[in-house]
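Holo prediction — 6-hydroxyuridine-5'-phosphate.
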Amino acid sequence: LASSMTFKQRGEAAQNLVARRLFNIMENKQSNLAVSVDLTKSADIIKMVDQVGPHVCVVKTHVDIIEDFTADFVSKLQKLAEKHNFLIFEDRKYADIGNTVCHQYGGGIYKVADWAHITNAHTVPGPGVVQEMSSSGNLATGEYTKETLKIARDHSDFVIGFICQSRICEDPEFICMTPGVKLEGGGDSLGQQYTTPRDAVFSRRTDLVIVGRGITGVTNPEAVANEYRLAAFASYQERISQ
Ligand code: BMP
């Protein structure tokens, strides 16, 4: 069962090279923390990523919110990914027909396919990747989750995991990633609902927590990122030693 295996064992079980690499980083950096750097100026993002980089396995971006996006931003981000050994996840949530998604993913201004190790898609249009939302009243439940899992299994060469609020399968190679995480819980004024790292990784048995404002909104992001890393990794260790 995935939830009782180590990240190292799961990396060995995975066929997909990106999944193998991610499990490897998680094991070596003792980090199942992704930071979502949802800032709107390139320089602020680069500065934040350099500070939190030592503590994360993944840096998640939303490049379409950046006001001054350039190729130079991408090359700086890639250098930091090498320096700190993390993967870049562009949280684009593709949701159109294949032909349009090909253009959106490979072309346009952002050329996401050139630099993002990981991206994601809704499964509403059919085979793709998975999205299960953390916001209240979201519709990604029941049959949607089942169908999504089927799509992932049928395309496991391309799919490395899911965005989900609780573990949706025990397949060792799929990584369950949970956004909407804050040490103090709570929510925001637009429907976001927060769970704690331990609730996500120990109680709901997911693998990786995605933290945005809980880290990017504090005055000492590096120290706080380390706190989240320790909390999420301890919850993983507690889970596998059960
Ligand atoms: P924050 O921790 O600041 O609330 O940020 C959460 C991040 O995760 C945002 O980038 C958001 O787009 C993303 N996210 C989410 O919150 N819930 C989901 O269901 C899916 C997401 O990608």
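READOUT: The CA atoms of residues 31 and 230 lie 8 Å apart.
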